[in-house]
Amino acid sequence: MENIYLFQKLFNTFSAGRTPGKEDLPAGKMYQILEDPFGLWCHFHAPKEEAVEEPNLYESLRGKTDKLVRDHWIYDHCSNPVVISGNDNEKFINTLQAMQDGAEGIIGGTLWDLRSEEGLYGGVNFLLKVNAGQSVFGAYHYKIVQLKRAGEMKEHYALQTTLLNKILTEIQGYDAGEALFIFKAKEQILTCARVMERAKNAATLYHSIRRGETVPEANKPPKGALSPWRIYANKYVFEKHDLVLIPHLNVTMREILRKNNINTYDDIVAAGFEKIKELLSDDTFPDNTPVLTYAHALAFVKNKPVLRAKGKFPPPTKKRNLYFDFEATETFQENNSSFIYLIGVWDKEENRFVPFIAREEKEEEIIFKQFANYVADCGPDVALYHWTEYEVKKMKALCNKYPNIKAELEHLVSVCLDLKIEVEKAFYLPSPSLSLKAAAPALGFNWRQKDCGAMDSMVYFTKWLNEGNEEALKKVLMYNEDDCVAMLKVELALRELQSRGEVLEVSELL
């Protein structure tokens, strides 16, 4: 009879008479600690009015799909699992009761150890009963099963699960030692002891950030932090003229500069090229690091491009100039496939946007045939501009998938020109990177929509397919059109600045 209320005793012990608060560490914060520590700092220390929620439709839909996939695996491997529900207190106490009752499996369990120094707590995809070992509950114990749609182990998965296993070990008085991960195409065992030190270090960093002892760097704009702190982080970095804005500078390089009282891009220019060369001419750094650093800093200070090499820009103008971009699905729903669903083209001479849309994978070949015909109709003197190698690599791969249009695809590839490479050969820009989303705003172009990015456009596309929502399709087309136009605007802006002599020549400054 003395064990009837064991779960209640465990609740009292591991809740420490309270619910999780700001002083505690959610194990699920491992991703943010590793990838977005500045966003975590903002959560504790930035003005609350600066937070701007930016709903991510893609992640929301993917989360629902992930739950369906998890549930399928669980019910295939466990005939009668217990599903945990309720408020925070109820979820924890219901998890403990299910463990004491010897449930075959527990879905959505919650684990706390608020009496620990770290104040740990978190949720678990699935707790699986193992009829071995001696726990406080009897001749069985539980081990953690994490179901992920990723293809392989990621560091934050390992750290999060190791901390959760630490709590589980304390609660049940038995260390399972390992957790099971179910990925897309494989299973993997995580031996928690192997990553425990890294997990403890991450927990220490979390609390250091929470207490304000550590102020991490923001990420490079336009993704300075995750929502709701992205807009604030971008503004913070630009207002500080922070070193993170300088492309090619890694953490080690920035630390060297800061140790020498060089904290902004203004400081780089003020220090002079010879000083930067002295500090960043390390054998482990690329030889051109000092030039890249100084020239990019100068571009920011002067707020104009710096010429990297004469005669490299602009690219030759053709009779017909087309700027194109692909939108592709991912397998973010349970049964969907990945394919190019939209080829968007901005026709410079016609001054119009031309989209080719595939409703399903079997129409992918059709839209590439239509695209090829459109380009052929433009005549032999034609150029296809794109940004990065994605589109060309995709068309080369499709040659094997669609042998009937291999010749057309190869012709398309032959007239392609990567505008990013052309810009990079010729200029240092006042932008934190040469992604189109960074370079175009630096030259005055901005996307018209705030709520539709590459990932969101997939969701809107799906909404159009499933619901016939024409407004959703309009958002997808507008986003893709802006991607195409952004390339043209970058080219035109650089042409104009160069023709007016409003670019600096780096050779005269070093």
Outline of the structure:
With 510 residues, the protein is α/β, with parallel strands linked by helices. It has three domains: 6-209, no CATH class; 241-303, Orthogonal Bundle (DNA polymerase, domain 1), CATH 1.10.150; 320-507, Nucleotidyltransferase, domain 5.
Mean pLDDT equals 93
> What overall geometry do the principal axes of the alpha carbons give?
globular
The first-to-last residue Cα distance is 84 Å
Radius of gyration: 27 Å
Instruction: Please report the total strand number as a whole number.
Output: 15
The proportion of strand residues reads 15-25%
Percent helix: 40-55%
Descriptive report:
This protein is an alpha/beta fold and 510 residues long. The chain has three domains: 6-209, no CATH class; 241-303, DNA polymerase, domain 1; 320-507, Ribonuclease H-like superfamily/Ribonuclease H (Nucleotidyltransferase, domain 5). The protein is built from 19 helices and 15 strands. It has helices at residues 6-15, 30-35, 37-45, 57-77, 88-100, 155-172, 196-210, 230-240, 251-259, 265-271, 273-280, 289-302, 364-377, 390-401, 406-414, 419-426, 436-442, 454-467, 470-499; strands at 25-26, 82-83, 105-113, 120-130, 141-147, 178-182, 187-191, 306-307, 320-328, 340-347, 352-357, 382-386, 416-418, 427-428, 504-505. The strands form three sheets. Strands 1, 2, 3, 4, 5, 6 and 7 form a seven-stranded mixed β-sheet that branches. A five-stranded mixed β-sheet has the order 11-10-9-12-13, with helices on both faces. The chain has a three-stranded mixed β-sheet with strand order 14-8-15. Strand 10 and strand 11 form a beta hairpin. It is globular. The model has no long low-confidence stretch (mean pLDDT 93).
